[in-house]
Amino acid sequence: MAIEVRIPTILRTYTDGAKAVTADGATLSDLIVDLEARHPGLRERIVDDSGLRRFVNIYLNDEDVRFLGGLDTPVADGDTVTVLPAVAGGMR
Amino acid sequence: MRFDSLIDSVGHTPLVGLPRLSPSPDVRVWAKLEDRNPTGSVKDRPALWMVEQAEKDGLLTPGCTILEPTSGNTGISLAMSARLKGYKLICVMPENTSEERRQLLRMWGAEIISSPAAGGSNEAVRVAKRLAAENPSWVMLYQYGNPANWRAHYESTGPEILEDLPSVTHFVAGLGTTGTLMGVGRYLREHVPGVQIVAAEPRYGELVYGLRNVDEGFIPEIYDAEVLTTRFSVTSADALRRTRELLHTEGIFAGVSTGCALHAALGLAAKAVKAGERADIVFIVADGGWKYLSTGAYEGTLDEAEGRLEGQLWA
């Protein structure tokens, strides 16, 4: 068992083009460390010294982790983590 | 109801219950029908507030040109206001927006400048900012950064909801400029202890995010995360499914972004039922489905409709 991580197009250069990869960890932070071990270079595109990068959104089962526990949010087998760049609304 | 002019009739929209989609008598879901505004969308409120604030500030005088990055509803609302008040309007919009929107804008007399599809609204904002810098006499109201956008909802939408439903526990709206959530959210938080303000963010297909660089994202200037309780990302498949569900079970013909908000609202409703709590959940019907007919959102199977929406900005 593992956690599915959906990768946006722009970061798939780090995952050999894969749209989704798997990783493990007890928290989002651990998960990102494991992701980095499997796909070197990915971590620094997602987080920086201050935490989650400003224009990167991460969703745990479709809920924005900034409103959960941020990088300390617990994750578990069967969860889906989605990484997306922040975009402006559509038809505004 | 009688009004002195079309502009005076903005707002005062119905709040209707959804007896079939509400899970129980204690957990009820309510739709705020913003498609009942003069040009058919929630955007009539911020458009009017922004124009009248600019008039008060002396920025807009008769004959002025208004410039705005908008892929639809705000442009249509501004075009109506501009026509009635004697301004010229130029809209910057992504080229992958529906033909109905372009026709509507031209109909009210607006000029359209297209921005590349791949950049979505981010790119339209960039192009508009550049044009504004090149043409200092043009007035950009800039809905993403204009406090009059959220104030429209703080002063009108929020009070209307509270007056119609003092027992409101949750407010859900789509996240675009964030104006609706910021305005209604601030108002309700001041008047309803413990109220939850929940954003439903459209998750588009690959094409829309395709060329986004994670270092060059966009967050509207008026966005303040403190106002929100939480934020959900809703796929186009879920938004489409809920849009059709709303039509089939409650008879409400809404645009696809409404399905996005409804999906989050029903998720909260299910959570309340599970927790054994009472809930009155209000969500925004941002516009009717008319402008999306050509997208094929309402025809064929969901998979077919989703395929047709791929690469389009649907909210």
From TrEMBL, chain A:
Q: Show which residues constitute the signal peptide.
A: none
Highest taxon of the lineage:
Bacteria
Q: Mind telling me which InterPro entries this protein's record contains?
A: Beta-grasp_dom_sf, Mopterin_synth/thiamin_S_b, Sulfur_Carrier/Prot_Modifier, ThiS/MoaD-like
State the name under which the record lists this protein. Answer: Molybdopterin synthase sulfur carrier subunit
Report the source organism. Sphaerisporangium melleum
Automatic annotation (TrEMBL), chain B:
N6-(pyridoxal phosphate)lysine modification sites are 43
Q: What is its EC number?
A: 2.5.1.113
Q: Which cofactor does it need?
A: pyridoxal 5'-phosphate
Cited InterPro entries: Cys_synth, Cys_Synth/Cystath_Beta-Synth, P-phosphate_BS, TrpB-like_PALP, TrpB-like_PALP_sf
Positions bound to pyridoxal 5'-phosphate: 73, 176-180, 257
**A GO BP term, please?**
cysteine biosynthetic process from serine
Enzyme group, top EC level? Answer: transferase
Q: Could you tell me the superkingdom of the organism this chain comes from? A: Bacteria
Give all residue intervals belonging to the Tryptophan synthase beta chain-like PALP domain.
9-287
**UniProt keyword annotation of Transferase present:** yes
Q: In which pathway does it act?
A: Amino-acid biosynthesis
**Could you tell me what reaction this enzyme catalyses?**
[CysO sulfur-carrier protein]-C-terminal-Gly-aminoethanethioate + O-phospho-L-serine + H(+) = [CysO sulfur-carrier protein]-Gly-NH-CH2-C(O)-S-L-Cys + phosphate
Q: Does the UniProt entry include the keyword Amino-acid biosynthesis?
A: yes
- One annotated GO molecular function: cysteine synthase activity
Keywords in alphabetical order, please: Amino-acid biosynthesis, Cysteine biosynthesis, Pyridoxal phosphate, Transferase
The record's PANTHER family line, in alphabetical order, gives: CYSTATHIONINE BETA-SYNTHASE
Q: Which family does it belong to?
A: Belongs to the cysteine synthase/cystathionine beta-synthase family.
Give the record's subunit note.
Answer: Homodimer.
Give the protein name, as stated in the record. Answer: O-phosphoserine sulfhydrylase
Which species? Sphaerisporangium melleum
Provide the organism lineage as a comma list.
Answer: Bacteria, Bacillati, Actinomycetota, Actinomycetes, Streptosporangiales
